[in-house]
Amino acid sequence: MMGQGIGQWSVIVAVAAGLAASSVVAQENDASTSNEKREVDPMDEPLVTDRPDFTESTEAVPAGHFQLEAGYTFTFDREDDVRVRDHTPELLLRIGVAEDFELRIAWSAYSFVETQSTAESPAGRPFTREEWDQGANDLSLGFKLKLIEQDGWIPHFGIIGELSLPTGSAGFSAEDVEPKVSLLWAYDLTDDLGLAGNINFAVINDDGDQFFQTSASLSLAMALTDRLGGYVEYFGFYPGGENADMAHTMNGGITYLVTKDFQLDARAGFGLNEQADDFFAGVGFSWRY
After folding, report:
1. Which of 27, 138, 185, 188 has its CA 20 to 30 A from that of 177?
2. Is 74 within 8 Å of 86 (Cβ atoms)?
3. pLDDT reading at 223 higher than 50
């Protein structure tokens, strides 16, 4: 059954790539009073990234270029007497292969997890037990396709399709293929203010059992200066795990455009209910070439 799912996703990727490649056209601008056509080079504009927020942008990397987005996230969660600290680097390589179409390779790299819990010695005295675990996470392959440009009340719209592959270490890998589809939208309210969101559908493997998970986000981004930007965002998972409650999270962050092709970022967030992680924070960068 999973083999059929992979085959179907391969067909979707191939069809999407064909549609994107066949739709490549030069953008037209009216040069003064003439009808000359000239191409607008997207590399002249600042890069658009998919980090540091949960919401993925509708924009694809320009054809013939790539964009590396990397960072580190620290996560803390406490339930009863168990405290978990997770240190995870993040890598995303986006490759523009046609206008409005990119290929994506994502990897949460290698996680270091510290677990502290309260226990009792044979003499009945309480003490804190500390355990460390580490391992590689699964690799994800996918694509992004920009479908619609904003026109009046119609927002920007795009789609991401991806497969998480069981390439990680034991205890960190899902040990199964996990397909995911994300519907992306964005709306420019003004030149300095924008609203965006994602609706995601995924099949998740949890301790050998698969379940269908939806998630969504809503992000408000603003340009504070020509180089400095900020955002506030809500995102949630419905449910947060198999036979678990929904998980709701708020976060915010800043971005700093060093050059039009290089950006630094920082973020922090907190869970709104018990199912969500209590706190997380991270830093990162994005580089386009």
Report:
1. 185
2. yes
3. yes
